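Hi all, posting the design record for the shared folder.

TITLE: backbone redesign
STEP: 1 of 1
STRUCTURE INPUT:
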């Protein structure tokens, strides 16, 4: 899935192309299904004249992060918060 990226053996996941109205709380709630989250944040930046939103999640374990990467693309809640779901 192009929206979710992580380095192998890491607990952190980067999620791009979030809907501009997604809140920190909604983001954390959606991803808490995959495991315990140490930290999460949603950021918005301007790229040229367009606004973009992305999120970062740090799971408690590598296994939880792997679960989010493997199951997230098929999860309707994850697709609902992204602009370009697959």
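Okay, here is what came back for every position:
SEQUENCE:
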């Amino acid at each position: 899935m192009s929206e979710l990226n992580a380095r192998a053996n890491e607990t952190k996941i980067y999620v791009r192309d979030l809907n501009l109205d997604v809140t920190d709380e909604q983001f954390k709630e959606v991803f808490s299904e995959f495991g315990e989250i140490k930290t999460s944040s949603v950021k918005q930046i301007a790229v040229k004249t367009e606004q973009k939103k992305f999120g970062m999640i740090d799971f408690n374990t590598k296994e939880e992060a792997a679960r989010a990467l493997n199951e997230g693309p098929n999860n309707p809640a994850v697709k609902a918060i992204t602009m370009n779901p697959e």
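COMMENT: Residues 2 and 80 are 15 Å apart (CA to CA).
Let me know if anyone wants the other runs.
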